[in-house]
Write a structure and sequence with these properties.
heterodimer, A: 476 residues, alpha/beta, Rossmann fold, six-stranded mixed beta sheet, three-stranded antiparallel beta sheet, 58% helix, B: 495 residues, Serine Threonine Protein Phosphatase 5, Tetratricopeptide repeat, 11 strands, elongated, CRISPR-associated protein (chain A), CRISPR-associated protein (chain B)
Amino acid sequence: MPMLIACVGNSDLMLDGQYLAVRNHIGQLPSFREQTRALLAEGDTILSRLDAPLLRPLVAWLLDRRAKDQTPLQIVLLATDQDPPHPQDTVFAAQLLERWLLARFPQSSVACARDKLSGNPSDYDAMYRAIRRVLQTLKPGEPPIYLSLTAGTPAMTFALTVHALDLFGSHCSFLYLPRGSETPRELRVRRWLQQAALLADARRELQRGEFGRAAVLLRQAGVPNAFAQLAEAADHRLAYHFEEATTTAKQAQRDPRTRSVAQEFLRELEELEAARRLLDEKGGQQAVPHAYEPLLSELVANLRLAWENDREADFLARLYRFHEAMLRWLVEEQLAAPVHTSSGDATPAFRRWWNARPELQRRAAARNLNPERITRPLLDFLIADIPALKRDREVLRNLNRLTQLRSQTIVGHGFLGVRRDDILKAYRNVAGPQADPMRDVEELAQRLQLGTHADWPQRLRATLLELLTAWEAEQE
Amino acid sequence: MATAPPPGNRLLLVSTLGNRDILLDSQPIPQQSFRSTCEALLNTLKQNRSAVLSRLGAPILENIIRWILERHANFGDRPQLRVYLVASNQKDEHHRKTDTLPAAQLLQVWLPDTFGKDTIESVKLWRIDTNPADYDETINFFRELITKRAVPDPHEFAAIYLNPTGGTPALSFGLLTVLAPFLGEHTVVLYLPVHAERPTPLDVAATYRKYQALEDAQRALERYDFAHAAHLLRVAKADPPLYAFSEVLAYRLAFDFRRALYHLEETVIPASRDTLRALARHEQDTLHRLLFDAKALEQAREPVPDRYPTLLVELYGSAWIAWEQERYADFLARVFRFEEALLRWAVEHCLRLPTGAERDDQGRPRSLHEFRAGIAADPELEQYVATSPFDLTRPPTRDLLRYLLAFPRLADHPIARTVREHSLALDPLSQLRNQSIVAHGFAPVSREEIEGRCPDPLATLGRLVSVVGHDPTVHPLKASQQGLLAELRKTMLSW
């Protein structure tokens, strides 16, 4: 059953062609409330003298539109009944209107219900609460749900719009009867407000670096496809799915608004994909430190998002990888020793490199290090005597405390709970009272010039937000 | 965007205007001649400024501005109020007679004259040329003001006031739905009731934002994003036990049972009543059990299979959430841990061997002495392990654990068989995890990559978690989540 929801105002009733409302009632004349109560007491004989100048055209228009529909139109009237009673209360007007509507229109075509709104109808706050309460109890049938913005106070129409959109979503259709017109207008406000809400949600997700969810919301909001494609590409990139990210970003290139940013994004992806290919194909056979650089830089971006979004265990999982890859990179870069391995076992190329260094072997043996396994202690040992790396090793040693913490958590081998405070406490125990692991990771990456990509989520987020603002301006 | 806080005396007022907003000789100007009367006054104003100004009044704005200035009178500096008036100037001849633009132009002069040029920094006009009663038009009008940057930067003002008292419902609607959210959370809506002299500050903007935050919190709870929900519930100024309970669940989700329990007992339970209290009590039991089991496992040197199931179920829930939230690398990290813990549980259950680890004198991780002794005490088992390539001194690996479950004596053991077979299906995921950024590589991880290796990973996890007696269709935090959602709905309904 379709539904029409309308607030009842003082202009909603006429008697013998005259409005009943008394403006600025001062007590000499019967108030609107008293008049309507008195009329109600007269019974059905009064109905032929009444008119509903705002509701009648709305109902007639809706019935005409739905001529073939057999189900009655459910009309819900929202009326005020203040405590103490107020001269302009519409509670009795609503009862009169109900009777009048049932008499005026064929009984099978309309059904009526009334709800009382408690509170001052001019009070935005009170109406916001009262109308929410009433709408929550309604059980609308088939869409659309028609909402009249013609009658009622601004506070009432404001609350009606906001809550109806929220509760009934795209099923809402807002109607307004222009001054002096008998033909209602359907407002586009619904579409705009829904879009505004979706865009607000999308912006929030972008701020949090939740590109995947932002992409879905951007699509729903009907923004140019290329914007959502960029967000989707970012989501793939965060998952190191560079190929998928490339395919998606290429589509965003077609739109002139996103072309330059997509091209820059693709250039970075190309570099990342080439680095990974190089690592897969040549890593372990020869030292390929430059393959590590963009991939490590990318990991910094990933760490930042996990840290910002309070996903501590996931932050530690990534930090573990960052720590290991940093050590490998330093060894490859400084010593040209091929330490890349996918299984953890030393490769033949590394063994050759190792066998050529008997002094190193002797010292490693004294420390009980196994050169057949490329472990983090072995990697640290290899760079221990390089003075230029003293500072970097120190940072890595501090970060190592957190990789130990990671081992005890659900992303390692334990069930240890971990929150930001735990991470900071563990880290500050070794790195100093003001130390911050994320800041140290970023400083390390910058000092070692691992690449300029680490801030790409922030850059893309800023660009997407600017694009959205510009697009909204274009829509005007 | 300004970074430093604005001076405390910088104030902004945006007001819609209606025909009730100006008085001439203390009387309203008739609607039929509203525009023409105001235009005539404007012309006279040029020749005889004081005579015209002395005849004018602004019953709504005057009271509102006086109230604002009184409110900010205690600051060291004199208040500096910038005023924007929204005035209509329609093209349609039929409606032009009630337009408020000439009235706004009069007020532009009258307001600084009345309150002092030192106090009224400026009075600016925003003209709406289309029908101010048309909702579409008024919404577009306010949107355009924002996108064309006609609206000042809200960060420049210490306080912002909106007055929707005059003007059409459509203008008020646009003011509150478009402009108020843009101007931000320090915006106060003022409404001057009929016959009143002091405006009522309405918290509609705050109310609107509060409701929005509550609804966002509801969505976050539905996604099991308890940490974000707790933040939103704080923003919405929800009852402390409500957001504290969400924080408890966030701790629980992070396996920080100790902190979750402490927070629950210190913050939630003392402040909650009725159903929330019952929910908190139930949560307390769950957390006690989880904490007890986690501690027992941490310290165990003996087999403690009974301590695993609650934690395995909890881990299953954590993996489920990562999957639903499309955080696939994080999902893999949890699957890896789930597989390992499940294998350990099965070995401890079936063979009564403790599967933990300790560090030797040199700090290297080693299997427990009791593990090795347990194997040595069973000649058949010792013989079975001796034929394998595994180093028993190292902490038991997943491969060793699976090998132990394949011990012929356990061939018909239902738990050993189920865990062995189904956990094998997860093994490709553990390999993918090893290649990803949550372990040792940079391999791409996506739903497709995962499903290519294990067609329905959640179902596989479900089959395994059912071995420890848990119904895999029920999320372990579902009861808590649903309970909290019910409490939140109650708050929203009663509010």
